[in-house]
Amino acid sequence: MQPFSDLLEINMKLSLHELKYTSPEELFVNQFKYDAIVDRYCACLQKVLDILSTHHNRPVKFNIKPRDIFKKLAYTNLTKIEKFYLVPYRNAFDTMKQGLCSLFATGINFWKVPLEYNKRFVDDLVNLINWDLIVERFFGNELLRDQINFVADVLESIPKANEMAEKYLSKRDHNAMEVAVPRLIAFKTVQRMRFYKEEEEKIRSK
Q: How far apart are CA 90 and CA 67, in angstroms?
């Protein structure tokens, strides 16, 4: 139970820190405290994940990197497509944190052994992992993030250009999904590459 106890304790510290420091100025001044808490949180969560993923019942079937959770949740100035994925992701993490705070408040006599018997926590953790697998696919690094935003911008331009095209797109018409959209993305990609090349040449010529 020690790894779980450690997670409950650091989770409470993280929650209290987030409640106490809310303004940009306070967050900046106390960033070193936050970084230390996050380091500890990641270490504790990783130990719990290792236990749940290696237990004979394997309630957790996919292991994730806790550090990546905080990395992706730190993204700012979210676009429309980013909010679609990252807001539910943030909610899943907050739900798990709230459940851990509630469990911490009840006291050690209410924590169940083995660890997987703490059903609410395991359910919240599995939900977070499921969201992490989705988010990692699209926002796991800056390149993936740039790509999903580019594709979203291209798709968003379709209704503006042609109302009939939007109709076929919303119906997932085969020609629209398998022919028109891939060709449009390819065209916009080449167009974008040409733009950056021209900009680079302008800089070099100065």
A: 14
Q: What is the distance between the alpha carbons of residues 135 and 110, in angstroms, rounded to a whole number?
A: 33
Rg value, the chain, Cα: 22
How far is 194 from 188, CA to CA, in rounded Å? Answer: 10
Residue linked to tokens 């808490």: 37
DSSP 176: I
Sign of CA dihedral 158, 160, 165, 166: positive
User: pTM for this one?
Assistant: 0.81
Question: What is the pLDDT at residue 107?
Answer: 83
In this structure, what token pair is assigned to residue 160? 């503006």
Pull the structure tokens for residue 61. Answer: 């079937």
Report whether 99 contacts 121 (CB < 8 A).
yes
Mean pLDDT (the chain) is 87
User: What is the distance between the alpha carbons of residues 39 and 45, in angstroms, rounded to a whole number?
Assistant: 10
* Separation of alpha carbons 13 and 101, rounded Å: 10
Model confidence at 55, in pLDDT bands (50, 70, 90)? confident
